[in-house]
Amino acid sequence: MKVVVRYVVFLLLPVTLVILWLSGSFHPKIAAEEIVQETRTVKGLELGKVEVVEVTHSVFSGRIVAEERVEVSTRMSGYVVKVYVDEGTRVRKGQVLLRIDPSGIRSRIEEAERKVLQAERAYKASLARFRVAKRTYERFEKLLREGAVTDQEFDEVRARFEEAKENLETARLQVEIAKENLKRLRSDLRYVEIKSPIDGYVSERRVDPGDLATPGRVLLVVEGRKHRVEVNLPEDYVGKVNLGDRLKVRIEALGKTVSATVVEIDPHVDPSTRTFRVEAEVKTGGIKSGMFAKVFVPEEVRTLVVPETAIYRRWDFTGVWVVAEDGTLDLRFVRTGRRFDGKVEVLTGLREGERIVVQGVERACEGCRVGGL
Questions:
Q1: Taking 50 as the threshold, does the pLDDT of residue 289 lie above it?
Q2: For the whole model, what pTM was predicted?
Q3: What are the chain's domains?
């Protein structure tokens, strides 16, 4: 009996007291209630609204090209002795661009002159023989009528006359050929000095003194002072862009936005790219062919747009922070389309007039309250 009492007092009682203490039996009771999480406030956000546009601009990449572009070559072969221009040099029509060594052409001209003299001497000799043969033929023709010569004798004389006439015609042709060749060589001598065919500037220089210039080889490229912007538009724009239309063009290298007039439209659609070419004349200083340009093509549409700065992207997710009526933020998934003048078309996910974050999207957070509302 004493053992049982000691067991209860020294073992079960302490264990029971520890269990009661751990269960909170000796602590004051706290009534249960809902825990309210404090809403975080975000400041420095700029808000805007989802807008509807009816006339906007689609942006396409284009390039500046010269209205006139001439590849300068030579009609004669020879070594270049002097180049008077460099790339970028402004030139006038008729201005000398380079000079070719004339010694080779001059030696060919002297040889052609000798051939002309030889041909003329050969012609004179043929003419003399023809005149003799003609007089003999006329005499034998008279004698034949009188019966003083036989038919065979007359035929021989006539054959020599015909041969003399053919030789005279051949000699005459040889003179003409020799003179024509001399004329061509003398005209080539004018191309010793190669001149600019147009007013403009040198866009490419492909020759240096000492190079051999040959017919067909491009030595210089001269471009006119008028320029166009060339752009390829999707086939959907066929009939929407017409001659005389004015397009807005942004030339990034110059930091300028200018107006361009459509002057040429290719009526054919490229089957591989499904696009067609449009050229518009650009008038502004400092422009050069090859410059990159953005072409803004106006079109009538009705669509929702938001500023590009309002788009929130994380990996494959594209969304917009929408401000709820109570001022809290909700990240809304959206599907975007085309871009118009710094704005993005929103196809799904938003409604017209909804308030959104347009600046500071990186500081926004789900459920946060917009400061300053």
A1: yes
A2: 0.52
A3: 46-54+302-370 (2.40.420.20), 61-66+224-299 (2.40.30.170), 73-223 (1.10.287.470)
